[in-house]
Amino acid sequence: MKETLKYLAGITGPSGYGSKSTAEQVTQDCMGFIPSNLTAIVTGATSGIGAETARVLAKRGVRIIIPARDLRKAARVKEGLLKENPAADVILLEIDLSSFASIQRFCSEFLSLGLPLHILINNAGKYSQKLEFSEDKIEITFATNYLGHFLLTEMLLEKMVETAAETGIQGRIVNVSSVIHSWVKRDNFCFRKMLSPKSYNGTRAYAQSKLANILHAKELSRLLKGRKANVTINAVHPGIVKTGIIREYKGFITDSLFFMASRLLKSISQGAATTCYTALSPQMAGVSGKYFADCNERRCSALANNEIEAYKLWKRTKALIHRRLLQPAS
Length: 330
What we know:
8-stranded mixed sheet; 8 strands; 12 helices; alpha/beta; TIC32; NAD(P)-bd_dom_sf; Short-chain dehydrogenase TIC 32, chloroplastic; SDR_fam; Rossmann fold
């Protein structure tokens, strides 16, 4: 109850920010601390929180790489970024995060550009109400939200470590998760069943993928610390963001309920604030393996904080990807 009241009131936490803080605000306060010539990859940047994240980072002078399945949609986002900031450096590259082969092609294309890589924001999200499978024959929500970002991170990690070593600028990886991860119980978190569930529930699949995003951050943080790499990784909950769909429900609920529900929602800029904060704030220097919401560290679920589960998931994911890359699905 105390945390809910703080959220509704927008009371700031130790970082100096809270639920009402916007992406522009938290990055404006970073001005003077943001190194020049940063390069960031932002997945899911063709709409919503991802597009706002890309916009604000570009406004702060960061070169933006937008991986997109729909390049025409990405081109419209780029046009908007350049209209606001003609000096922005925005590069579009094709990717389908549900496809291992497509991720490989993207990484090969990006690395061929010879650019540094300081920031990787794993933001793209997929929610499917019905059971669908990727071209690799994996349930598509898990394939996109978790496995795709896992492989993307793996293939770009050495570039990030190399960039950090050469420039002295700490690399930062941000996994966009969700508070919904806490809905997952240990008995329902089975790697084999998440790949190919016999009984499917869209909300459960989404929650499982978001739990996996946090466990990924926990284990990769441990590995990076072990090799003394100057790269951090954290997971964030952006909040429940206002979209057009909320208006559709207004006619079916009372005005008082609508008012109460609307108080819990964030604007898109507020939703992007925690991602931008963890990516750029000097307060985040050296912070790794943590979970953030409203620009402040928060507790994640006990399962998400379980080091053994994080290691097991990492090991099984590595084995799966290794098999699939050596023997692609027909």
